[in-house]
Amino acid sequence: MMIWLSRAVRFGLPLFVSAIFLDSLRYKFTDAPETQVIFGRLDGWAAGWGAPGLFDHAGLFSQYVIGSAELLASTLLLIGFIPAFRRFQLLGSALGLAIMTGAVSFHLFTPLGIDPNSDGGGLFVAACLVWLSCLTLLVIKRQEALALACDLVRAIIPKTR
């Protein structure tokens, strides 16, 4: 029973995260009004802190940048189903966790709030579930994640003799 549950989680969570991310692209990449409300409110908040344009169409954290990061995370999560590329799923989980940490934080700690589009908080709940899913994947595969992190550090920081 536990083996079946473990397999279901390892297979289901990446699919769930990818589905949420890929579904959101139709809003982010088409300039949908719902997206304009969210990023417009965040840009107004950032302007109050001296960073106008941060969330604007051409800003560092625009809907296009965030959408592209979500597309990359989804791609990595899905490629990770191929046995030779399993480590990519860890990278997708880490990227998804980073994206959703930002999303949840902005919902909680900015004027954006939990219900910016009057959807009953559905967007916030989805962000929390994706965050938990990515974290769960990283915890379940923590030994692989640690090995990947060590390999990345070794690749970036050369040995000195």
TrEMBL record:
Keywords: Membrane, Transmembrane, Transmembrane helix
Keyword match Transmembrane helix: yes
Transmembrane segments: 61-83, 90-109, 121-140
UniProt keyword Transmembrane present: yes
UniProt protein name: DoxX family protein
Organism: Maricaulis maris
